[in-house]
Amino acid sequence: MKCKKRWLGWGQNSLAVAWVGRWRSSLMVIFLACGMFGCLLSTKSTAPIITQSSAGATITNKTAAATMGTPSQSWHRDEILTFSLRMDPVDADVLFKKDPFDTSSFPVRLEEGQQLLPGRVEVKGSFTRRFPKKSLLIKLDRGNSWQGMRRISLNAMSTDPTMMREYLAWDIFHALGMAVPRVQYARLLINGDFVGLFLFIEWIEPQMFDRYGLGDDGAFFHPRDSGFCGDLTISSLDKDKECWFKLSPRDNDFSPLSALVNEMAATPAASFADFVDSNFDVDSVLNWIAGNVLTSDNDTYNKNYFLYRSTVSGKWTVVPWDYDLTFGRSWDPSKEFPANVYNDNFQYYYPPDVGQINPLKDKFFANPELYSRFKRRLGHLMGVGAADPNVPAAAYGWFSPARVEKRLANLTQRIGADLSRDPFEQGSGEEYDRQVATLRYYHLARYHYLQSLIFNKTVFKTSCWTPAMSALGRAEIAALPAPIAGQRLRVPREMRAAAELRKGKSEINLVDAENGLLLATLRLRKLTGGTRLSLSVLAEQPPPVIPPTTQVGQCLERTWVVASQEPGGGLVTDLRLEYLEEHSLHNEFGAAVDDEEQLRLWMLDGEGGWQQMPTKVNGLANTLSTESLALEPLRLYRFVACVPAVSSSALGRGK
Amino acid sequence: MPSPVAAGSWLLSQGENQYTSSLSYSTSTAYWDSSGVLHESGQRSHSWSVNQRYEYGYSYYRTLYLSTDLIHKTSGSGSVSGLGDLMLGVRGRLNRYRNGLAWEAGVIVPTGYSRDRRIRLGYGRFGFEVALAMRFLGRAKSHAEVEVKVRHWQGPPADQFRPSLKWVRQLTPNWNGWGEIQGVFSFGNGQLESIPGIDYDRLPEYDVIRVGLGVKHAFRRRWSLGLGLYWNVWGRNAGKSVGGDVSVSRSW
């Protein structure tokens, strides 16, 4: 957590208004979106026409695709490529088993039809080199190319158990028509043996920008990955820190970057819109930030992006990079590699300015004009509000739950066969299904979170997210005491949500109006009449009431109280409740909760006693589910989650 | 003698280069005779040398190295300066998957200096060496490097067995500290070597045990600066010298 959170009270009426508002807003979206589609189609926009296919979006208009800069040979995002390599078997063996930070390359030949293209192959990446499945870079010898490219980059996706995150992130940027690399799934065969499924990401070099009409002679920079300092602050220009690589032209002239950074530092937030318009391809900035917001990318703004200053447009273009630690992945500050990145933590509630400090981002959000444009761009992707005419119409609603659901289902099906035979056993079985379910939950929760924070007319307070409409200013936030490093963080609070249950609506999401957290989801099985359901959550505090056979250390530090508030509304529902595990210093585990998969829901019926509920735990998404729960009207139901009894010595241990 | 050219257990990545330049100084006022008895020499001898060492990762499996010394020595009223021996070698892997387990083979090429002088820059003979070197990871960000080497010359110098043990500990992310013990032990097959015009024979056969300690500082990612101090603590036919070196290394 970058900043400590502060939480205000809750007003039941405001939530009701919000729901109504959302309902009205949805109608307006449909109306405006329909209107905007017609407008865009009638004006023959030059933006590529991207349509929804079985697995997401594909570029279907080849003329438009060529305009966009698609590589000389047309390609289809849904197609899974196959790269077949021939190499010395010993080299092939060593390539995956050698010292991870050895940068040696090995001779290789790439099969291309009847041809064998000579080149070399090496392991690429930084810390991901330590995973058994390596990301690879194939460099073809001079005079040889594959579909116009001499470099073929294959990402192993080792840090992403779903093997979808990178693809999904690039999918967003492609949908927005950005100048970004070609990205497709690819099978890799070495000497005829299937090595695994990889993600082909076109090597970013000036020729790529040339395809997009930006010329190939621009100044091209990239923050050094291990420096964590390419944040566009003046200190990032310090030569000793070596924050930047200049990728092209290959010289030591950093003056274009210096001029940009210095001018950015001198520009106040109030006039930052003019600065961005004058110096940047503003859509690339908007899309980059919107993509980072949707994916909750905390691993950017000081690294993981490219800057290209086109000599054609005279402006800077941002190219996003590296989206494996996104879509809910949460860094653990108190653990060593690989647990710091490869863990079962989860978050979807980092505010829109998620990511490291960077004046481009920070002044962007502080400028009302740019924030307004961002809000429209994000709304376009989420399918909320009016469409943004500056990006392809087909991207409208890209992040909406319905389209996400369909996209994930199709993607799972498309890559499933290859994942199931992946020799690195990266993606198959129940564990993989759980990972995908977590990804699905992230999308749903993030959608509602962003809608609450950005689009709903509610007062919200988070740690850092303070746009102009927030009642809590930056000065107030700065005055809050900072969490003590290394100590467990607790922010006890009460959250509430309510929903009208009516026939015809089976999926209900209970979202806290102030914090935007998805407290619970319902899948209605039976509803007699209508009712109003309320949920109150005591978060990050030991439950005041627990089952008699348990001790408080066995339980999550969270209590849920559900009430059906109207008479006559008998209800049978599947119930999914979420809890908190951002990382090892911020979670709700009681002292004796060593294995969250052992958690079981307990329900206290107002007229009965405690009863243990059949519980499904998803320790990755941090959810507890119980099915076919019967709730009587005008009754209070209290839920806690506890692990079975343990010895008393374990109670002091904690997770 | 100038510090022996260090072997190494570490193979560079294919295409990687490493260049090290070091300035060494040693001095002594005493020596151990052929029976290992310490005597005052009555004069102070000095030795300066500048060593240049270049390594290149020819492939994942082979690293090539080249090394030479520019030496200045004084002893009493005599002195000599010039290029010392040239060392050319190759290092290979003992374990194809692991770095830090290596064999090494090199040739020693004299560079034309006079071997007839009382003070000289080397043995003035062709020779070769083979070595095994291993690096073992320890606890608390430390590792040990063990190396055994055998040298053979064409001519009078005795063959040598050169073991060493070095312990390296990371002090901070950019600073390492190390301690080392090296030995040079002659096999006893050396022949007396006469020096024409000086009615003098010498036995080019000696033993010495040397200890050292130092620090190494990594900076600007691919640069490092080293500082080491050495003492000869025991010997036979060898000077009781003390010295140190400063080195700068860059890889790319």
Describe this structure in words.
- The complex is a heterodimer of chains A (655) and B (252).
- Chain A is built from 13 helices and 26 strands.
- Chain A is of the alpha+beta class and 655 residues long.
- Chain A has two domains: 324 residues, no CATH class; 160 residues, Immunoglobulin-like (Sandwich).
- Chain A starts with 11 loop residues before the first helix and ends in a 13-residue tail after the last strand.
- The N terminus and C terminus of chain A are likely disordered.
- Chain B has 252 residues and is mostly beta strands.
- Chain B has one domain: Autotransporter beta-domain (Lipocalin), CATH 2.40.128.130.
- Chain B has no helices and 14 strands.
- In chain B, the strands form two sheets. A twelve-stranded antiparallel beta barrel of chain B has the order 1-2-3-4-5-6-7-8-9-12-13-14. A two-stranded antiparallel sheet of chain B has the order 10-11.
- The N terminus of chain B is likely disordered.
Shape of chain A: globular
Bin the helical content of chain B.
Answer: under 10%
Widest beta sheet: strand line-up of chain A: 3-4-5-6-7-9-8
How far from one another are the termini of chain A? 19 Å
> What is the 3D shape of chain B?
globular
Question: How many helices of chain B?
Answer: 0
Largest sheet of chain B: 12 strands, antiparallel, barrel
In spatial order, strands of the major sheet of chain B run 1-2-3-4-5-6-7-8-9-12-13-14
Whole-number tally of structural domains of chain A = 2
Q: Major sheet of chain A: size, sense and barrel closure?
A: 7 strands, mixed, barrel
The structural class of chain A is: alpha+beta
What would you report as the Rg of chain A, rounded to the nearest angstrom?
26 Å
Count of individual beta strands of chain A = 26
Largest interface: A-B, 14 and 14 residues
Structural class of chain B: mainly beta
SSE topology string of chain B: EEEEEEEEEEEEEE
